[in-house]
Structures are given as structure tokens and as C-alpha cells.
Fold this sequence. Notes:
Blueprint: E1 2-5, H1 11-15, E2 23-25, E3 31-36, E4 39-46, E5 49-53, H2 59-65, H3 72-77, H4 84-92, H5 103-113, H6 118-132, H7 148-151, H8 156-161, H9 168-180, H10 185-190, H11 193-201, H12 208-218, H13 229-239, H14 251-263, H15 270-283
Helix pairs in contact: 4-15, 5-9, 5-12, 11-12, 13-14
The chain binds a DNA duplex through residues 18-19, 110, 113-121, 160, 163-168, 170, 204-210, 213, 226-231, 250, 278, 282.
EC number: 4.2.99.18
Family: Belongs to the type-1 OGG1 family.
Catalytic activity: 2'-deoxyribonucleotide-(2'-deoxyribose 5'-phosphate)-2'-deoxyribonucleotide-DNA = a 3'-end 2'-deoxyribonucleotide-(2,3-dehydro-2,3-deoxyribose 5'-phosphate)-DNA + a 5'-end 5'-phospho-2'-deoxyribonucleoside-DNA + H(+)
Amino acid sequence: MIQKTLTSFDLKQIADSGQCFRMLPAEEANTYTVISGPHFLKAAQDGQTVTFFCEPEELPFWERYFDLDTDYDAFRKAINPRDAYLKQAADFGQGVRILRQDLWEMIITFIISQQQTIPSIRRRVEDLSHAYGSRLPVPGTFYSFPSPEQLSAASLEDLLAMKLGYRAKYIKRACEDACSGRLDLSYLGSLSYEDAMDYLTGFYGIGEKVANCICLFGLHHIDAFPVDTWIRKILMNRYAPKSRLPKDLPQSRVCEALIQKHFSRYRGFAGVMQQYIFYYERNAGEDLHGPS
DNA sequence: TGGCAGGGGCCTG
DNA sequence: CAGGCCCCTGCC
């Protein structure tokens, strides 16, 4: 067990931030279990004191996972003071970090995520881990996320039976591609953000949004800015100057323009801002919202 | 209770 | 660009 004093770090906020789906509350208060690939951690937080229940040799892995070397205060200080909404969102979620998660796990998880709710994504990921992952040698019943080889044991019918719907065929193909080497994870890991986007969107079932999530949470390209239905609504409601909107401009073009206008100043770390907004919108009570 | 809308979208025509 | 898609959940 190792204790550290951390700022801009909140286990609960991270668990509720919608970027990781295998970080769950433990029985003990203020305690969470986290599984990433084959790694397992139990961690507790009391104010700025965070306790890592793991062997010392595992600590570097989790320090990297939680991105502890990055200065999130600096990101928040870079926020445009005239952007009251973003400032409020960042203050609200100042314990959120962009995790360095397992690349393969992120690919499958965000393929699963399309047209699903967050609780539902959790269940699907957990079901896959129990069915095809490895039991972890820790107290309790925990399973690693299945490797490409392990997940390849699932037939299309198996995946359909696990309520993956039309995503089953995408997952099947991703397993085949990863095992054949056509989807080369270490090569993907060597690419720039732009090249990684091109590479990822070339695979079946991976579009721009999913690729951005993989870049942000699996490759730590923190410039990635995933635009989902929530972010799209926020952009339209909070950032679109309604008077100047051409009526027939496609919504995707409007979003592009709004991102360019309001978030290009955060080039290099715009994804952190996206995450503050996403967390705020999903977790702040109505009384904390600004004027609508 | 049943029907409908929508969910951290993507592929096909 | 429009339509369809698997299945679940929340809402009326």
C-alpha cells in the first residue's frame, strides 16, 4: 500500500467521467477497483491523500495510467476567461484526468459504445471480460479484458448472444484484423494523432467519433476532440450564436466551425477541455447549470 | 401496459 | 446525404 498526495485528482470524478468502464466503487467507502488489461488496482481517496493498494513494482504502471506527471492546473489556467461556461465546467471537474488506457481494450470498448448508454457499455465490457478474459489472482472475482487472441474465441453468434447487436460484426472483424496483423497495435502506437485517425478510420466499424475516443483514451493524443451527441448539443446550445446560423448549413459543418472558433486556442490539449465539458454536462445537477 | 424516442455512430446505396 | 440498424432503457 502506497500513499500519495495529489491535486487535480478525484477518483470518483474519473470513475464517472465516461472514459473508463472498468473502474467501479468497491465495498469500502471512497474506494474503487480498476482493471486495465491484465492489471488490477484498489485505490482509496481522502481529500488529497490517495492510497494505492498494490505492490510497489506495480505503482509506475498506475502513475502512468492516471497521467500523474501531467500538470492539469496549467490546462485549466489556459482557459479563456471570457468563456464562463468552460471555466465553470473545468472547476466542477477539476479532478478529471485523461487516462492512459489499454489500446486494444479502448478499440473494442468504443466500438461497443456506439448508440449505447454508459451503464450499458459497462455491462457489455464486463460480460466480455468474464466470458473471454482471465481470472485475476486477487481477492474477489475479477477478470482481465480479453486479449485479441482470447476474444477471437468468440464466434459471431456468441457475440450476438452477448447483446452486442450490430456491433458484433465489427468486433469480430477487429479480432481477425488484430490476430492477422492487419491491425498492428504497436504500429498504431507509433503514429501521430492525424496518422492514427487515418489508420483507425480505415477499419470496419470505426468512424471518426470512435477513432477520436481511441486516440484520446488509448493513445493519449490529448488534442483529440470526440464529438458525440452530447458535445454536439452543447456546442449548439452554448456556443452557437443563434442569430448568425445559416439555416441550411449541415450541423456537422456548424460544429466544425464552432470547435475551430472556440477551441483552437487549446491546440495540443483540446481533448482535456472536451472531457471537462462532457463530465460537467453529464454529472452537474440542474441547479449548477448556467442560464439556458 | 405498450409504444416511442434516443443512446459517447457507422455502413451502405 | 438519407435510411437502416441490434438491443435496452427511460418516459409517457
